[in-house]
Specification:
With about 180 residues, the chain is an alpha/beta fold. Helix content is about 35%, strand content about 25%. The chain has a seven-stranded mixed beta sheet, with helices on both faces. It contains five helices and seven strands.
Length: about 180
Amino acid sequence: AYKLIEIDDKFRFLKVGQNVVDLGAAPGGWSQVAAARVKADEGKGHVVAIDLLEMDAIPHVDFMQLDFLDHDAPDKLKSLIGGLADVVLSDMAANTTGHRKTDQLRIIGLVEEAAGFAREVLAPGGVFLAKVRHGGTDEDLLAMLKRDFAPVKHVKPQASRADSSELFVLALGFRGLT
């Protein structure tokens, strides 16, 4: 959660009244931060946590236990929030094999899927934040994000260990579906 707090303190993309989706939300730290920042406790914002795993209830956060890759997942989400999302967060990590190149491909694949989901559920001007590793995003993913968002940045919060390969991609200003 400290990483999300630090990134949002710097870029200020979580705003009161927004609809926020937290993909791969368990155990729920990012959802708690998002709920506080959008003032979900005052009924001003809405946070939806989505995960394959069960998750303990979090005050002022709706939980959907489903695979965001399911064909009908975007429609289920939009129905729950009554429209489009303003922010899609993904702190998901792919299961690792210990083989660096394979693990990087899995991570990039998961971020590509999360970005595809974000394209389907984000309102114009929306934000996508996702965890990546090693060299950040690959060329194809970066090109897709730059086509759909402006600007796109790589962010390494101080809350990440200096020796960690953890990095985040922050895509602001969703252009909307064309």
